[in-house]
Amino acid sequence: MEEIRWVLIISGIALIAGIIIYEGYLKSILHKTSKDSEKIEPTFHTKSSLDSLKTDEGQLGAYSDSNIDIDIDIDNHNINVECDHVITVRLTPIDSMPFDGNQVLEILNGNGLYLDESGIFNYLDNNKTKLFSAANLFEPGVFDSQDIGNEKIPGLSFFMLMPLSSNEINAFDEMMMVLKKIKTSLKAELLDDAGSTLSIQRERYIREEVIEYMLKSKKNSPTYD
């Protein structure tokens, strides 16, 4: 009986030791698996995926001291601006849901903006002078005049190119008045060129920049005796 008791004790100790060793082995495997699962695979962006994040003329900024060329290249999805200064204001949905193309067309037309053959909306004054324009905020920048009703538009970029043949400050005030109407109709929000909310203070600052541009242009204009 004594021998059987010792055999059972030794067998129990061996069993327990085996269990402990096996548990340690399992933990080492699980730990290694856990570490491997935490590895983050590198993400590679193709040129096309990076291009989809660009905003074309929305990159221009609210006020620029450099001369910029303007040209609409529909085939290559480029909108280049030719002017001394450009004022840019963005309009985006509050709920992040893209605008319906038909709704955009109807509301912009109702506020005096009409789509031309190049795919850009233009606002003309009573003298048929273009005061400001509107483009798609994202590529390709221009709208498909034949199929805009089926488009889902993530945002609009309104821009005024200076100099104008008319009074720039009056044009800016008129642009802001029209944009606020469109904002209400589309249930959207206005942003500055950097994508920040266009506050009253920011709007006043941009307006002051327009005045500064006008004064500078007048000062640099040639005078004749």
Structure in words:
The protein is α+β, with helices and mostly antiparallel strands and 225 residues long. The chain folds into two domains: 39 residues; 166 residues, 2-Layer Sandwich (Cell Division Protein Zipa, Chain: A). The strands form three sheets. A six-stranded antiparallel β-sheet has the order 5-6-7-9-3-10. A hairpin with a 5-residue loop joins strand 5 and strand 6. Helix 4 runs antiparallel to helix 5. The chain starts with a helix and ends in a 5-residue tail after the last helix.
Quick gist of this model?
The protein is α+β, with helices and mostly antiparallel strands.
Key traits:
elongated; 2 domains; Cell Division Protein Zipa, Chain: A; 225 residues; 10 strands
